[in-house]
Amino acid sequence: MTKIAELKGSSFTLSALHLVDNDISKVTNQLKDKVELAPNFFASAPVVIDISQVDTDINFEQLKAGIIDAGMIPVGIGGCKNKTQQTQAKAAGFAIMNAARPVKDEPSEFLAETLDTPASTDKEPTLIIRTPVRSGQQIYARNRDLVILSNVSAGAEILSDGCIHIYGTLRGRAIAGASGEQSATIFCQNLQSELISVAGNYWLSDNIQEEFWGKGVVISLEDSNLSIEHLAL
């Protein structure tokens, strides 16, 4: 018999939204703000909802509708405390996500698990941009590193499948390792970014520690978590 489909284990990049109360309207408004800040990153992105910190009843139907209204795609629920919550979540169309291991606290209210993707052996020459990257512009260095010799404005987005070097001020969004390369690194002379991401792990501006704001930094992955340190000149 000819196979027409085959189930295999795999892993994908997923964001996890950690709820702290059951105010769905507040959650929806905050999600909308995040999606508007980085639409190319969050719009239509799948998200898992962790309810382990919520001690009150949750309207799962309303939660699902709110997340969809905010522009993201609700996939599953994690952190259910009892069978009743699981039954209610299933009735609303959520998958039940059972954590295989404890998840470490992250500075962001969003967490991302990264996709293990082998690095390409046919890397293209580095893409060098000598002019400022204006608000609304997007630059993608596919299968190559990216060097920006000027500033990146708020509302601009730069992406690379490899490393990103910014020899100016970064006020927009920088996404390194866009295809999952976990050895990708961001080097920045002046960090004031709306969003930084390496291989699917990301921080928003309010997650960046004050001591690194406006400073030269190196951002990379360490044990599958974002790590930031001062840039030694």
Automatic annotation (TrEMBL):
Taking every annotated instance into account, which residue ranges of this chain make up the domain Septum formation inhibitor MinC N-terminal? 6-74
- Family matches, as InterPro entries: CAP/MinC_C, MinC, MinC_C_sf, MinC_N, Septum_form_inhib_MinC_C
The Septum formation inhibitor MinC C-terminal domain extends over 128-229
What biological process terms from GO does the record include? Answer: cell morphogenesis; division septum assembly; regulation of cell division; regulation of cell septum assembly
**Keyword vocabulary terms for this entry:** Cell cycle, Cell division, Septation
Name the Gene3D superfamilies for this protein: 2.160.20.70, 3.30.70.260
Looking up Pfam families in the UniProt record yields:
MinC_C, MinC_N
Q: What does this protein do?
A: Cell division inhibitor that blocks the formation of polar Z ring septums. Rapidly oscillates between the poles of the cell to destabilize FtsZ filaments that have formed before they mature into polar Z rings. Prevents FtsZ polymerization.
Q: Which PANTHER family match?
A: SEPTUM SITE-DETERMINING PROTEIN MINC
> What is the annotated quaternary arrangement, including any partners?
Interacts with MinD and FtsZ.
Family affiliation = Belongs to the MinC family.
Q: What is the protein's name according to its record?
A: Probable septum site-determining protein MinC
| Gene it is expressed from | minC
